[in-house]
Amino acid sequence: MLRWNRKRRGFTLVELAIVIAILGILALYALPKYQGMVEEARSSEARAQLGSVRSALGIYYAKNHGVYPATLDGTIFADDSVPEVEVTLHDGSIKRSNDVNNGVTVNNDGTVQASEVSDAGGWIYDVENTTYDKADVRINSKGIDPTTGRYWYEY
């Protein structure tokens, strides 16, 4: 018959070292997966926000008989503010912004060109400024979306 040793009250140093080693190995596999999930979430959120902005512009266009707003501001959104977008800039830094045309000079032809991107974060809004019947909105970043490999302004 086995008897329990009543004097033993805890784990030995070897047992604790083995547990710590196992946890360290698990962490080595989990951290890269976590980083990838964070990048995927940022990418998905940015593309969803772009879709929201474009939807709001489409609703405005339909309500105003084929005319886009002269400027992109909070008045066309339900919460009276332009949505924020979080992207990776060209230098690798991450910026969250809801600025519109920050550091951008658009040519007012209703189409955002790659040369108009200033990499300041936020949004670029270009509307044709005589009839207001053509508009384009893009993410103002020359950085690359890590999940798709495309430039942010290409969406």
Written description of the protein model:
This protein has one domain (13-154). A hairpin with a 7-residue loop joins strand 3 and strand 4. The strands form 2 sheets. The protein has a two-stranded antiparallel ribbon with strand order 1-2. With 155 residues, the protein is an alpha+beta fold. It has one helix at 13-63, and strands at 85-88, 94-97, 123-127, 135-139.
Itemize the secondary structure elements and their pairings:
Elements: H1 13-63, E1 85-88, E2 94-97, E3 123-127, E4 135-139
Antiparallel strand pairs: 1-2, 3-4
Q: How many domains is the backbone divided into?
A: 1
Tell me the distance between the termini.
73 Å
The Cα radius of gyration reads 25 Å
Which structural class matches the secondary elements? alpha+beta
Order of helices and strands: HEEEE
Helix content: 25-40%
Strand content: 5-15%
Work out the helix count: 1
Number of strands: 4
Shape: elongated
What does the average pLDDT come to?
90
Largest sheet: 2 strands, antiparallel
Low-confidence runs (pLDDT<50, min 5 residues)? Answer: none
Spatial order of the strands forming the largest sheet: 1-2
